[in-house]
Design brief:
Two copies of one chain form a homodimer. Chain A is of the alpha/beta class and about 290 residues long. The first copy, chain A, has nine helices and twelve strands.
């Protein structure tokens, strides 16, 4: 397994590869990431995993500085999973015009990708600019790695939607494969941010996925008053000590609020325990 | 020479090509375009020319509907120049989600590329959204054609600058080659929009390039009061019947207003004769 941090060296290493599977990550890898690597191994001759904590997708008050960076352990896991190439660019490599100002790091990435309006809804509503940052870094990584297939987890359902739009609307010759969310036995979706939770909070956190399942069961039992289901779920989670950002039933194909005509739904939630913001979702076909 | 209008057929035709030279155009080809094709022939094994009048880069009051479309004559010229593949997508092929509204064509391209602030200066000041439309369509075409080299004319100097930034900041693995402006004997830069001019206007139009040369001569003669030179040029052109948009001396490397420290300058102008907006520029190394 090669570990490469410069774009030029990456291009050289991948020059003769005709069937590249690409898994972009922010590192601190867990079984959800490794599941994507396994999918890539099955489908592609050469698996490239990037590890890059992308400043462009973090808000001013978010956890960029504290985001867990565990490169050595990540590389061990990737080697064991059969990854061929790990790409670990520095911030200066990704954003060469970066400058340090008195108020913090300035990323001089003045050519950016602006995603559709849906990027300002759901997680985008409380994280302005987040999906523009994601779309921009993924476009850059796609141009660096030039994969035939790229793998994204369904836990970040809205991100997956934005990436699919990126590929479709900018005509990237890349197939997007979605990996199922990997969960703890309790139902808690694996996330690098779970590492911020105390043991007690981790137990508490299982309620997020439970609540989504309760909504799904209610819908399957013909309760299609989505707003009432959403409100009941929010009330319950707030009572359990969460600060709920959103719980919402959406059309899984376009992420618009669900209507009675929709056959493929997704129930999405974002909420905080203490300072830790967690997201989850489940799909539901009627 | 193949003429292809679908993206899928294009990808199939180019699949085994490893050294593609790409010349994106809006058609109505003149010797300036053919110069770019000749450069591509010299440097690449396979030359692809796209012909697409891109609605996304036209403003509401601009000449989208009247822009000259001369596909048959264009293809004859390209065949004679040794072009291998002409890509002629329809608007629906480039923007599949397009919808027709009561107020006109709606391009449902909701994932777009936003260029740097310089795109709102010079031609961008009077053509809001123009360079975002250019950057977005070129990014799409780059992803469709996947060339190793792409060729752009220096007549559209600001466009060339935006494309270079696109490639650099989004890490496209593409070399950009700039072709020199091709001119009439009078000095008038070749442009598809010259076809709008009457014989009398065409004679008059040579004054644009003459004026740029007068500024260059003055600067070479140590007159570095750029503002005064710009104002004199505007006054002269307005007196000759032009409606001047801008005449400006800039740093050729970053398009910022020129300073006395700059060694590589570009003098740019945009002005209208009648309803026809023409642009021109000349570079100047001190």
């Amino acid at each position: 397994m090669q570990i490469i941090s410069s774009t030029n060296a990456l291009r050289l290493a991948l020059k003769t590869q005709a069937n590249i599977g690409f898994v972009p990550t922010m590192g601190n890898l867990h079984a959800g990431h490794i599941h994507l690597v396994n999918l890539a191994k099955q489908q592609c001759n050469c698996v490239v995993v990037s590890i890059f904590v992308n400043p462009l997708q973090f808000g001013a008050n978010e956890d960029l500085a504290n985001y867990p960076r565990t490169l050595e352990a990540d590389c061990e896991k990737l080697k064991a999973a059969g990854c061929d190439t790990v790409f670990t660019p520095t911030v200066a490599e990704m954003y060469p015009q970066m400058a340090q100002s008195a108020t913090g790091i300035q990323l001089n990435q003045s050519m950016t990708i602006v995603p559709p309006d849906i990027a300002n809804d759901l997680c985008g509503a409380s994280r302005p600019g987040h999906f523009a940052g994601v779309a921009t870094v993924v476009a850059k990584l796609f141009n660096m790695v030039q994969p035939q297939t790229a793998f994204f987890g369904k836990k970040d359902f809205q991100q997956l939607f934005v990436i699919r739009e990126l590929v479709k609307q900018l005509n990237y010759p890349i197939q997007i494969v979605a990996g199922e969310t990997v969960r703890e036995t309790s139902g808690l979706a694996l996330s690098s941010r779970n590492g911020y939770l105390s043991a007690a909070q981790k137990q508490q956190a299982a309620a997020l996925n439970e609540t989504l399942h309760e909504i799904a069961l209610a819908i399957q039992a013909q309760n299609t008053n989505f707003e009432s289901l959403e409100n009941a779920a929010k009330t319950k989670l707030n009572r359990l000590g969460w600060q709920v950002d959103y719980v919402t039933v959406r059309n899984a194909l376009n992420l618009q609020p669900a209507t009675l005509a929709d056959q493929h739904l997704v129930i999405l939630a974002a909420a905080k325990i203490g300072n830790t913001r967690l997201i989850d979702n489940i799909e539901l076909s009627l």
